[in-house]
Amino acid sequence: MLIDPYKSINKNVKVEKMITRTDKIVNEVIEFLIENYSEILGTSAFDTKNRISAEKIIREKLIKDYNYGNYDTEELVKNILDRIFGYHILQKYIEDTSVSDIRAIKWNSIYIMRDGKWIKVEDSFSNEAEFYNF
Questions:
Q1: DSSP state of 72
Q2: Model pTM?
Q3: pLDDT of 52-78, one tens digit each?
Q4: How far apart are the first and last CA of the chain?
Q5: Where are the alpha helices (DSSP H) in 11-127?
Q6: Smallest Cα–Cα separation from 63: which of 40, 31, 29?
Q7: What is the pLDDT of residues 15-53, one digit of tens each?
């Protein structure tokens, strides 16, 4: 018998998605940026100069502090920029021209409309707090 780790046996117990090592790195780098470069982050997402500066700082931080893992640096940079200047995990659906609507019902229930049909996607926020902060 297979056990679904996200399905709670006790219905009164909330089950949260486990935070991956990648999520932890992303959160640590964002925290670093907030603490040390808040002037860059406090500007509009359309400020290309500040976005380029943030991207450079992020890349340097990842190479300096997280180069030991088998991580795709460019994927991490995009993930961080999407969280800071974009729409987090929804950004890829916003950029997808075949998606006409997005509904984030709750932290682990996200639907997109593609070709006139609603599709539940596998992506989810890490937990309720991250969803509500978004």
A1: -
A2: 0.67
A3: 889 999 999 998 998 766 778 888 999
A4: 37
A5: 21-36, 38-41, 48-65, 73-85, 91-95
A6: 29
A7: 445 567 888 898 899 999 989 988 887 665 557 788 888
Q: Is 65 left (phi over 0), alpha (psi -120 to 50) or beta?
A: alpha
Q: Report d(CA 51, CA 6) in Å as an integer.
A: 36
Contact 94, 121 (CB under 8 A): no
Q: Which residue, among 104, 112, 111, has the nearest Cα to 128 in the 3D structure? A: 104
C-alpha 34/C-alpha 29 separation (Å) is: 9
SS3 content of the chain, % helix, strand, coil (to 5): 50, 15, 40
CA distance 134 to 125: 9
Torsion sign across C-alpha atoms 125, 127, 130, 133: positive
